[in-house]
Design brief:
The complex is a heterodimer. By secondary structure, chain A is mainly α. Chain A contains 5 helices and 2 strands; from the N terminus they run E-H-E-H-H-H-H. Chain A has a two-stranded parallel sheet with strand order 1-2. In chain A, strand 1, helix 1 and strand 2 form a beta-alpha-beta unit. In chain A, helix 2 packs antiparallel against helix 5 and helix 4 packs antiparallel against helix 5. The radius of gyration of chain A is 29 Å and the shape is elongated. Chain B is of the alpha/beta class. Chain B has 2 domains: 302 residues, P-loop containing nucleotide triphosphate hydrolases (Rossmann fold); 130 residues, no CATH class. Chain B contains 16 helices and 8 strands. Chain B has an 8-stranded mixed sheet, with helices on both faces. In chain B, helix 5 crosses helix 6 and helix 14 packs antiparallel against helix 15. The termini of chain B are far apart. The chains are: A mainly alpha, B alpha/beta. Chains A and B meet through helix 4 and helix 5 of A and helix 7, helix 8, helix 14 and helix 15 of B.
Chain lengths: 182, 443
């Protein structure tokens, strides 16, 4: 029979205790001993911040890739880079506009093909507006994609730096992570 | 002219961040301002000594002899690299010390006072600037250099591994014990140790995925936490991008700047020298790479540049590709519509307007294309310049590979010079023919 001993701080949250208990139940044929002792400060609290940062980065990544709608929502709420919000709104508005134009244009072409409309607005006017809207979308989309990429990388870098800074805080308080005090 | 010895230390929390490259080239820039001495204090790796080994005589002594040994500093102690630039290798080439001895040097508790006295003596030989290239990591040499330098430049890279080392180094500087009466040398010529020497951060080898504003914000928040404990600036002193031009020439030649004068790193190092020494030295007006920084606009522009030429070109090519794709989509759409409506209700003005629109599109795409071509033209010009300079420095006959590389770059340069002419001529021809056709039609 294998025995696992885990030290737990007094300040450990209930959730942490529950998780450890469930872990002990899952360990087939094993026994888990939880050794609780008094700690100089609540290290688990700080560790949870670290995990939160890592989780937020992962969450951002998956939500960005999973759904465009989620992206638009998060960007419009975020105040990190106002230019991203602006470009997103422009691209979004242009997409709606282009969709509308394409529908009108197709209807117009069909009407002219079958002679329903003969004296309508010139076809080229539609094409011009559509072309201008397409160019504007690409013109706004490229800087938007670039800014998004920059912001994403900067956020990852910042999150990584924060994790390291947290570890420094833990160490300068007198004890290192994983090394129990006497 | 400066009336005192200015000392600049290049340190880092970990090795391999480009410290030696920056220190050696910074010394080269400083030599345009005053008599400069580059000292290799990296006793473990001896990077600068290896890089500049072709200049070092067999009988040359090393810094270890003058700082910790009994050797007296004399005028011929230094290796002459240029008219205004001298070098002191870490160890003597003909009598390299044992590894244990080198290790002891780095942890020697009396190193600070010995270095203080050595730097005090260096000033007597007319040197105005001393650049100290230290070992990457936490040792007594790094601490001594920091406490005896006017500016300590901590080289780092934008990644977690290097950041961890950088914070370790800053913590080390902050927690190291202050000087005591016993550790202070009694000789008045020796430099005083000071725990409040300014520390500056330089972020090197920045990949093109970052933007200046983002990095400035991220590092600004980090530095703010150290501001109360160290005499550290709230902003990073320089952001230097990862560059192909530097990689091309580094290791082959000691000084990158004369080989690749237009690279971003060269501009950044000149700006660094301008920032640190413009209050102390008269900037030579004939030396344009330094004198042009008299313009605040120019300083700001170079300071904010963190993208290398090759990355800029890649972006320009992507933009051109997008513009040309857009043109093709438009052509396809226009031609399909024309084919569809040709025999039915097609109006005369429609085809003319469509043609006009096509002219506008072609003009826009040509402008984007020309921008990319001009960027590539500059890029190949610089690459050609690097290869040509490297060929000049090669001892003996130039290798076949180098000759082929030069010919290839010459051809590319020629192509990039001819292409804009061809593009502009084609565009003008197309516009003229279209205009002529329309005029004939309406007449």
């Amino acid at each position: 029979m294998r025995t696992m001993v885990i030290r737990m701080e007094d300040g450990c949250k209930e959730e942490c205790k529950k998780n450890l208990m469930s872990l002990s139940q899952q360990a087939s044929g094993g026994m888990l001993l939880i050794n609780s002792r008094r700690a100089p400060f609540d290290r688990t609290e700080l560790m949870s911040d670290e995990i939160k940062i890592a989780q937020s980065v992962l969450k951002q990544e998956s939500s960005f890739r999973r759904t465009v709608v989620g992206y638009f929502g998060s960007v419009l709420k975020s105040d990190l880079d106002p230019s991203i919000k602006m470009f997103t709104l422009i691209v979004l508005a242009l997409f709606v506009f282009i969709s509308f134009l394409i529908v009108i244009l197709v209807l117009h072409l069909l009407a002219r093909k079958f002679g329903i409309v003969t004296n309508a607005v010139p076809f080229t006017l539609y094409v011009t507006i559509l072309a201008a809207a397409s160019i504007s979308t690409i013109g706004s989309g490229i800087p938007l994609m670039m800014r998004m990429s920059y912001t994403e990388h900067a956020q990852r870098l910042e999150a990584g730096f924060k994790v390291i800074e947290k570890k420094k805080v833990l160490r300068t308080r007198g004890t290192s992570v994983g090394r129990p005090t006497a | 002219m400066a009336d005192q010895l200015h000392r600049i230390s290049f340190v880092s929390g970990k090795g391999g961040v480009g410290k030696t490259l920056l220190a050696v080239n910074f010394a080269w820039v400083c030599a345009h301002l005053g008599k400069t001495l580059l000292v290799d204090l990296d006793f473990q790796n001896q990077g600068a000594t290896g890089l500049l080994s072709s200049f070092i005589r067999e009988a040359s002594r090393g810094a270890i002899d003058y700082i910790l040994g009994s050797e007296q500093v004399t005028d011929d102690a230094f290796v002459k690299l240029d008219a205004n630039l001298s070098f002191l290798p870490a160890v003597p080439l003909n009598r390299p010390p044992k590894h244990s001895e080198l290790f002891d040097t780095c942890q020697h508790p009396g190193f600070k006072s010995e270095l203080a006295c050595f730097l005090g003596k260096v000033g007597q030989y007319g040197f105005e600037i001393v650049v100290l290239d230290c070992h990457g990591g936490l040792d007594m040499v790094s601490l001594a250099s920091h406490r005896l330098s006017d500016h300590t430049l901590v080289i780092t890279e934008p990644d977690r591994v290097t950041f961890n080392g950088t914070l370790e180094l800053l913590d080390f500087y902050q927690s190291a014990p202050p000087p005591t009466a016993d550790s202070t040398p009694s000789d008045s010529r020796c430099l005083p140790e000071d725990i409040s020497r300014p520390v500056e951060l330089i972020v090197n080898r920045i990949p093109p995925k970052y933007r200046f504003a983002d990095l400035d914000r991220v590092y600004g928040s980090v530095l703010a936490t150290y501001k109360t404990r160290l005499n550290i600036s709230g902003r990073v002193l320089a952001y230097i991008p990862a560059e192909e031009f530097v990689v091309d020439s580094f290791g082959e030649v000691p000084f990158v700047i004369p080989v690749a004068p237009n690279c971003v790193a060269a501009q950044k190092l000149h700006l660094l020298a301008y920032k640190l020494f413009s209050d102390w030295f008269a900037i030579p007006p004939k030396y344009k790479p330094l004198s042009r920084f008299a313009s605040a606009r120019r300083r700001k522009r170079v300071e904010h540049t963190i993208v290398s030429a090759e990355s800029r070109n890649i972006r320009a090519i992507v933009n051109t590709f997008a513009a040309i794709s857009c043109l093709y989509v438009f052509l396809f759409f226009g031609m399909s519509s024309y084919a569809l409506l040709r025999n039915s209700q097609w109006e005369k003005t429609d085809s003319d307007l469509l043609l006009g629109l096509l002219c506008l599109f072609v003009s826009i795409v040509s402008a984007v294309y020309l921008k990319a071509v001009f960027g590539l033209n500059r890029y190949y010009r610089d690459k050609y310049q690097i290869q040509r300079n490297l060929a000049r420095t090669e001892p003996g006959e130039v290798s076949l590979w180098r000759r082929l590389a030069i010919v290839r770059l010459l051809l590319l340069r020629a192509a990039m010079l001819v292409l804009p002419v061809v593009v502009v001529a084609t565009l003008l021809l197309f516009l003229l023919i279209t205009l002529g056709w329309l005029v004939t039609r309406y007449r």
